[in-house]
Amino acid sequence: MSIDLQTVKKIASLSRISVSDAEAQAMVPELNNILGWVEQLGEVDVTGVQPMTAVIPNHQRLREDAVTDGDVRDKVLANAPQAEHGFFAVPKVIE
Amino acid sequence: MPNSTDKNALTDLTVAEIRDGFRGGAFSAREVAEAFNANVAAAKALNAFIVETPEKALEAADAADRAKAAGEALKPLAGVPIGMKDLFCTEGVQTTAASHMLEGFTPTYESTVSKKLWDAGAGMLGKLNLDQFAMGSSNETSYFGNVISPWKRKGGDNAALAPGGSSGGSSAAIAARLCPAATGTDTGGSIRQPAAFTGISGIKPTYGRCSRWGIVAFASSLDQAGPMARTVRDNAILLESMAGFDPKDSTSLDLEVPRWEAGLSSDLRGRKVGIPKEYRPDGLNAEIAALWDRGIEWLKDAGAEVVEVSLPHTQYALPTYYIIAPAEASSNLARYDGVRYGQRDLPDGAGLQDMYAATRAAGFGPEVKRRIMIGTYVLSAGFYDAYYTQAQKVRALIARDFELAFEKCDLLLTPTAPSASFALGEKQADPLAMYLNDVFTVPASLAGLPAMAVPGGLDAQGLPLGLQIIGRALDEQSVLNAGLAIEERAGFAARPEKWW
């Protein structure tokens, strides 16, 4: 399976990374090399094998349903590129 | 113990020697902190630190000195200054993951592992440089520039060498005596490979031993914090303070932290060490193969029985890793959207989607973009099963290989990396060649097993080579003990000649 310029642009768009045509062009062979190399996994017989989801057996814990955090609005906003009136600010999204 | 006025001698001490010398009154904690602060300040040429925090080191030292003067019980790491990889969030101190994206990010909270270390009395010398978002094996992807290894090839070759990665600031700083120990994180070898490249030791504990809370996430099913230092004992000391249950990390193991330092013993009688035959491919570097053979003899000398074992899926570990790690990274790094923290790039008239794309184009380096895009692709509709599900199945087979091998032995001995350190720039043009650095370290990461690198000797160029010990899940003690047996027999005392 090999990917072309259009696919690279689609992946970049899904990744929310803007790329120029030249950058996308340069990525075509790079990504194809890496994907071509990982495709060797297809030759492994995995009949009856369950996909691994946890490396070390561990149980999911339940915690008490209680408020243990919060009331830290200013801390949460402290590193925002733009915060106004106690909110994160973003470009206008509704006309 | 050194004379308290000899600053060089203080920075040559191990963590254990600093701890014990401070307790015994041979020197004050402030003298130690000042000596390391001076070494850090004088080593700009290595570019090991992104932020230096001499005042934090002095503050912790003064607290230790005051506690001692008042006759209070001393904390386990009282008087010991350390370096903190800049992947651990530190309250009030910039945390960047060596990225432009997080330049200026000043956490309002402290990572669990760093907090545990400060609570144990350690002081912070600064935030250590690394590969950007911990993605790299040579520390060449940092937005803040390459870390330069303190080591040089012998014979007048002046090439700047790689300190390994991603914990390259940590490895360079320890080898250059800028700090006696440091934190690292290891996703596919990021503690062990840099340790091997710089002639120091480092251990990646069992997945879940150290909390991931507050560590900038790369691949969450693989990321594990661990210590790096010059001796096995120092690693045991540090790990005791770093490990432990944390309800804020859903994969944290709710287990007592063993007394690893007290349990150290290099007597390996009755232990079986497996030598995985798949780790000796055709074309394995002859000096690495010879060191491995010496390692086998050292472990036999310590009383261990050596047996050959097979890990048949070894060759698939790297491609499995390079599906799973980018997949998880693409998901984890989706948080960098220019809204909540970090950089924002808002072109004139741009809408929200354009802002995301511009922010991420400007904030991420080429290797980070490459991995996010690989991850996005293997998780995308139509390809998920062929790539990601298949990789998760092969990962299960790799873990089963280890389980079966550990029916025949207690530990595994392998090389740490396929080569000694290489020159900066030498492998950067080819991402795949760089990925192959992790060929011996990635399998244990995929299986979540504890694994340690210890220095074994120098190659013909005068550069350090390391051996790796892999243990059963939760059996860090046996890993440390075998590491100690090698350390005692290798007698590795080489250090880089100061040029910086």
From TrEMBL, chain A:
Q: Does the keyword Nucleotide-binding apply?
A: yes
Q: Which GO terms describe its biological process?
A: glutaminyl-tRNAGln biosynthesis via transamidation; regulation of translational fidelity; translation
Question: Which segment of the chain is annotated as a signal peptide?
Answer: none
Query: A Gene Ontology molecular-function term?
Result: transferase activity
Q: What EC number(s) does its UniProt record assign?
A: 6.3.5.-
Question: Which reactions is this enzyme annotated as catalysing?
Answer: L-aspartyl-tRNA(Asn) + L-glutamine + ATP + H2O = L-asparaginyl-tRNA(Asn) + L-glutamate + ADP + phosphate + 2 H(+); L-glutamyl-tRNA(Gln) + L-glutamine + ATP + H2O = L-glutaminyl-tRNA(Gln) + L-glutamate + ADP + phosphate + H(+)
SUPFAM superfamilies in alphabetical order: Glu-tRNAGln amidotransferase C subunit
Specify whether NADP is a keyword of the entry: no
What are the alphabetically sorted keywords of the record? ATP-binding, Ligase, Nucleotide-binding, Protein biosynthesis, Transferase
The record's section on HAMAP family has:
GatC
> What is the annotated quaternary arrangement, including any partners?
Heterotrimer of A, B and C subunits.
Q: Which family does it belong to?
A: Belongs to the GatC family.
Name under which the protein is recorded: Aspartyl/glutamyl-tRNA(Asn/Gln) amidotransferase subunit C
| Native organism | Sphingobium wenxiniae (strain DSM 21828 / CGMCC 1.7748 / JZ-1)
Upper classification of the organism? Bacteria, Pseudomonadati, Pseudomonadota, Alphaproteobacteria, Sphingomonadales
Encoding gene (name)? gatC
Automatic annotation (TrEMBL), chain B:
Q: What SUPFAM superfamilies has UniProt attached to this entry?
A: Amidase signature (AS) enzymes
Q: Which domain of life is it from?
A: Bacteria
**Start and end of every Amidase domain?**
32-480
Any single GO molecular-function term of the entry would be: transferase activity
Q: Which UniProt keywords apply?
A: ATP-binding, Ligase, Nucleotide-binding, Protein biosynthesis, Transferase
Q: Which reaction does it catalyse?
A: L-glutamyl-tRNA(Gln) + L-glutamine + ATP + H2O = L-glutaminyl-tRNA(Gln) + L-glutamate + ADP + phosphate + H(+)
This protein's GO cellular component annotations are: glutamyl-tRNA(Gln) amidotransferase complex
Location of the active site: K85 (charge relay system), S166 (charge relay system), S190 (acyl-ester intermediate)
Q: Which Gene3D superfamilies has this protein been placed in?
A: Amidase signature (AS) domain
Q: Which GO terms describe its biological process?
A: translation
Under Enzyme Commission nomenclature, its number is: 6.3.5.7
Quaternary arrangement and interactors, per the entry?
A: Heterotrimer of A, B and C subunits.
Alphabetical list of PANTHER family matching this protein: GLUTAMYL-TRNA(GLN) AMIDOTRANSFERASE SUBUNIT A (PTHR11895:SF151), TRANSAMIDASE (PTHR11895)
Extract the HAMAP family matched here.
GatA
* UniProt family annotation: Belongs to the amidase family. GatA subfamily.
What job does this protein perform? Allows the formation of correctly charged Gln-tRNA(Gln) through the transamidation of misacylated Glu-tRNA(Gln) in organisms which lack glutaminyl-tRNA synthetase. The reaction takes place in the presence of glutamine and ATP through an activated gamma-phospho-Glu-tRNA(Gln).
Mind telling me what this protein is named?
A: Glutamyl-tRNA(Gln) amidotransferase subunit A
